[in-house]
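Page 37, top half.
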Amino acid sequence: MKAAVVQMNSGADLAANLAQAQALLERAAGVGAALAALPENFAFMGAKERDKLAHAEADGAGTIQDWLAATAARLKLWIVAGSLPIGAPDGRVHAACCVYDADGRRAARYDKIHLFDVDVGNGTSESGSTLVERYRESNSIAPGAVTPVAVDTPLGRLGLSICYDLRFPELFRALVSEGCTLFCVPAAFTAKTGAVHWHTLLKARAVENLAYLLAPGQCGTHPGGRGTYGHSLILDPWGETLAELFDDTPGVALAELDPEHLQAVRARFPALSHRRL
C-alpha cells in the first residue's frame, strides 16, 4: 500500500494553513495513498512560541480536530496529523499528534515527550558577536507522558513521535519493542540543524530498528523569520530513500510500503533478535 508525506509552509493564518493541507491531502489521496502524514505545527506557526496558546483546543473537539476527522472521512484516507495544540491542565498546551482512520475516527493520540529547549548557533555577525536562534518550547508546551504510542494501520503498526524526539533513540527502540514496523516523525526542523543532522538521524532510526519511516516536514520561512529545512522523505528498513522532496516548497512525496520486504530484511539481518540489553 502507498503512504504519503506532506510538506508544508505553515504560517499564522489557521484557515490558510488548513486550506493548504487540504489541497495536499487531496493530492495524496488522488495518487493512491492509503495514509498521509502532515508535518509538525501544520495548522499554525506563529512568530512567537506562545502564539499557539490562542488556538488551544479541548481534547476531542475543536476547529482543527473537527476538520481532520471530516477530511479523513471524506477522502477515505488515514491521516497522521503532525502536531496540534491541545490544552494542558497547567495552561500550556500539549503538542499532540493525532491519527485518524479512513472513517474519520481518532485512532491514536501521542503528546510530544521531548521539548526543544535549545540554542542553535547561526554564525557570527559583522561585529564578531555570535548569532543564536533560541527555542524554548517548554514556555508554551507541556511534555507528554513518557509512554510510547503505537497504532495499527493498513500499512503496519505505526509508532508515533514528533521532531525533537528523533534525537532520542530509546523512544524508537521502545516502539519497535511494541511491534512497530513503521515510524512517523512529523517535524519543523530548523534550517541549520536540518542541513547537518536531518538525514543522518532519520536513517539511523530506520536502520537500527529495521523499520519504514515517514518524515513530513515544514519548509521555507515562517512568521518571525524562522527557517525550516523541508526535505520530507520516506525511508525503507535498510535506510534507502524511497521518496524525497528537494524543493523548498509545499508538496507531496509518495512511496509504496511492502510488508514482505520488511520481513525479508528482518529475517536475513536479525539484529533485533540479537539485542542483549
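Page 37, bottom half:
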Amino acid sequence: MHTNQDSAPARRGPNARPDLRETARELRRAGHTYDRIVDELGVSKSSVSRWVRDLPAPAPSPKHMHRMREARWAPHRRRQTLARWNTKMAAGNEIGRLTDRELFLVGVGLYWAEGAKSKPHRLREDVHFVNSDPGMIAVYLAWLRLLGVTPDRLQYRVMIHESADVAGAERYWADEAGVHPSRLDRTTLKRHQPKTRRKNTGDSYRGCLVVRVRGGAELYRRIEGWWTGIVLGVGSGV
C-alpha cells in the first residue's frame, strides 16, 4: 500500500529530523527541563539528552528553589514544633489550679500591665481593659468574679478593622465572654488604610474586646493600692 511520506511521523533517534533537534536545543536554552522537552516534542528522553547535553543545565526556578528549601527544612521545623509544644506543656503542668490569692495577685499584675490607668495630667479612675488575647480576657473575667464584680456591671465592646469579619468577631467575643451578642455595645470600627500593610488579617483576626466595669472608680483606687502593695512587698519602694 502506498504511503504519503509527508504524513509520516517524525523519525526518532539518530535519524530524527534536524528541526526537532534544533527545537530541543532552543527549549533547553530557554530553561526547560528534559521532561518538558520530551512532552513538547514527543521524542524520547535519551534523544533529548543526546541533543542538548553540551548545553548548561537551566537554573532552578524560584518556585522550584522554594520547594527544595521547604523539603530540606521540613524535618527540622517538625522537630522544633514538637520541642516547643513539649516545653509549653511541661511548663503549663507546673502551674496547676490557682488558689484565690494567686488569682488575685495575677489579676492585679495583669490589670496594671494591660488595663487603663489614671495619669497625673489626666485623672481617669475607670476600670477599663482591652485585649486581643482570649486567654487574657478569660483570666481577667475570672479575676473580676473573684472580686465580686457582678455581670450586670460589665460592659463589652469589640474593636476591629472595618475590613474584617465584624459579625464573626462579635459572635466570637460574645462566646468568649459568656454573654449573648446583644449584650455587646456598638462595635468600634477602625478605618481601613490601603497604604498600611497590616499583619493582623485572616480568619484568626478578631480584633480586641473591651471590658469596662460600670461605676468602677472605687475599684480602680483599690487596684492602684494593691499594685502599690505588691511593689512594697518585693522591697522595691514606690
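Margin note: The first strand starts at residue 128 and ends at 131.
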